[in-house]
Amino acid sequence: MATDAADQTSTISGVHHAAFRCRDADQTIWFYRDVLGLADPTGIVVEERPGSGASDPYLHVFFRMGNGEYIAFFDAPSSAEGDWFLPKDGFDMHFAFEVASEEELEAMKVRLQDSGFPVGGPLDHGFVRSIYTYDPNGIQIELTRRVDSHDEILAHEQSSFEETLATWRKRTRSQKLEKFGAEALTYPGGDG
After folding, report:
1. Which of 137, 138, 143 is nearest to 121 (CA)?
2. What are the residues whose beta carbons fall under 8 Å from the beta carbon of 116, sequence distance 6 or more?
3. pLDDT the model gives residue 3
4. Of 81, 91, 101, 138, whose CB count within 10 A is highest?
């Protein structure tokens, strides 16, 4: 359902943090602070799982990025499963950090490689150029920079997105119905 731009107001002003599970806080701090160069972290120990009251002690670690937003991690060994830390498909989970220039992107690639991490790219996605690696927790990490025409490209794509979405829906609907069932695809205002 399309809405007019004038109706698109939100009280959401940005991302405070995106949070993921980590295998070990020390290893995660080494990667994000010492390899990627994020600021020194902060964190809190919490004794109960939020909302449930169940005992599940964890350390919640926060790394502040240059724009004031955070990436955060839960070091919760009592509820962790080893298989969770295997590399995840980038379609299932990845985090894209932004750098300001091609030089910074290249410097990050060298920095990662010098720390023993394999790096893919840079790949040109049209509106951004990106490199890819995995952190020690199996999370795909993308480092990306906007091309000069980034905003114009996305504005152009937005102007025809309803048509793009309708074409995509038609192309994939039967596959999704077969795979997931109509009930799983139902939402208010949707045709299920």
Report:
1. 143
2. none
3. 54
4. 138
Please name the residue ranges forming H helices in 67-139: 102-114
137: which 2 tokens? 């927790």
Residue carrying structure tokens 């695809």:
185
Domains and CATH numbers, the chain: 17-150 (3.10.180.10), 160-185 (no CATH)
Residue 129 structure tokens: 């150029």
**CA-closest candidate to residue 28, choices 143, 139, 120:** 139
Structural contact between residues 96 and 84, judged by C-beta atoms closer than 8 angstroms: no
Task: Say how far apart CA 29 and CA 67 lie, in whole Å.
Answer: 19
pLDDT tens sequence across 1-36: 455 555 667 899 999 999 999 999 999 999 999 999
Instruction: Print burial letters for 147-183: b (CB count within 10 Å at least 16), e (below 16).
Output: eeeeeebeeeeeeeeeeeeeeeeeeeeeeeeeeeeee
142: DSSP letter: E
136 CB-side CA count, 13 A: 19
Say if strands 42-48 and 55-64 run parallel, antiparallel, or are unpaired. Answer: antiparallel
